[in-house]
Amino acid sequence: MSEVTISTRGLSKRFGEVTALDAVDIEARAGAVLGLLGHNGAGKTTLVHILSTLSQPSAGSATVAGFDVRTQGAEIRRRIGVTAQHTAVDNRLSGTANLVLVARLLGARPKAARNRATQLIEAFDLTAGANRPASTYSGGMRRRLDLAMSLVADPVVLFLDEPTTGLDPVSRVNLWEIVEGLVRQGTAVLLTTQDLNEADRLADRITVLSKGRVVASGTTAELKAETGRRSVHVSVERDRLARAASALRQHGYPPTVEQQGPTLVIGVDASAELARMVQILVAAEVPIDGLALSEPTLDDVYLALTSAASATATESGSSPHTPVGVS
Ligand SMILES: Nc1ncnc2c1ncn2[C@@H]1O[C@H](COP(=O)(O)OP(=O)(O)OP(=O)(O)O)[C@@H](O)[C@H]1O
């Protein structure tokens, strides 16, 4: 297995009364994407700030590229790239000038800085806008430039904070392909995102944070298998909808009604339940127009995990979160 490039043990951060991170353990590896998911305020940015040495932990330990975040910040900063939600692009400068500026700030000589800028401009498909001000760029170009700027020093660890927010579908896929290319070359990526399609596509492993705690971690397949439920979708004629819903409910399969179709959706734990539902509907004399069994999506998993975490918090008073299932 590839080498561990980010590791945290019992990492905690308090801001006065607020515990933003509570004994967090994560691990990210070279050549892989770790997806960090969590609701607003879950602690994602706090974690990225500590790992990128912008702030210090209150307790616990963390290493990035083998260096300690508490004592070896300069070593870490030399080896990481950060693309934050607020772009680092200077709008008055051209794409090339932005890249040269970053390279010079990192200590490159003028010629080496220009060469690196040209390389990145080509790699990120920015040639057309290389010499005009970034203020004239489209959202996709600006995001690509932002990412290119975080890669000037060829980082071994890349922090991507919601990298495709606000991009159109084509620009989004372009950016995903760029990230996949970097990962193939061995970069470790820590990706925070609210976009579960993005996490599903890019992340090799996912850690879910809720109120500062890790509530689950695993591959997307593991999370789906352990947490998500499969669902049966039954289409019936509209005038049989009420009868079908009532028959299923009576037998312990309360459906959700989707008016489009119309379709009844029922969560199931085993595929054998599909046959049972057909029997129930046949017995109730409801003709079935369509039938499908669908796998859980990452959305289902995320909702199940975060609602389980909130329920635990409510039951146990102020202190939340028994980690669920997967580890
Ligand atoms: N400097 C600070 N002072 C006080 N509280 C803070 C500070 N920074 C973060 N917090 C609190 O810590 C908690 C975690 O915040 P954080 O920004 O890490 O969450 P997040 O998961 O990144 O959320 P979002 O998705 O909204 O960016 C929140 O309750 C937040 O209000």
UniProtKB/TrEMBL annotation:
Domain ABC transporter: 6-236
Database matches in Gene3D superfamilies: P-loop containing nucleotide triphosphate hydrolases (3.40.50.300)
PROSITE patterns (alphabetical): ABC_TRANSPORTER_1 (PS00211), ABC_TRANSPORTER_2 (PS50893)
GO molecular function terms noted in the UniProt entry: ATP binding
Keywords associated with the record: Antibiotic resistance, ATP-binding, Nucleotide-binding, Transport
Membrane topology, as annotated: Peripheral membrane protein
Subcellular compartments: Cell membrane
Keyword Transport part of the UniProt annotation: yes
Major site of localization recorded for this protein: membrane
Pfam families in the record: ABC_tran
Record InterPro entries: AAA+_ATPase (IPR003593), ABC_transporter-like_ATP-bd (IPR003439), ABC_transporter-like_CS (IPR017871), ABC_transporter_ATP-binding (IPR050763), P-loop_NTPase (IPR027417)
Protein name stated in the entry: ATP-binding cassette domain-containing protein
Organism: Streptomyces chlorus
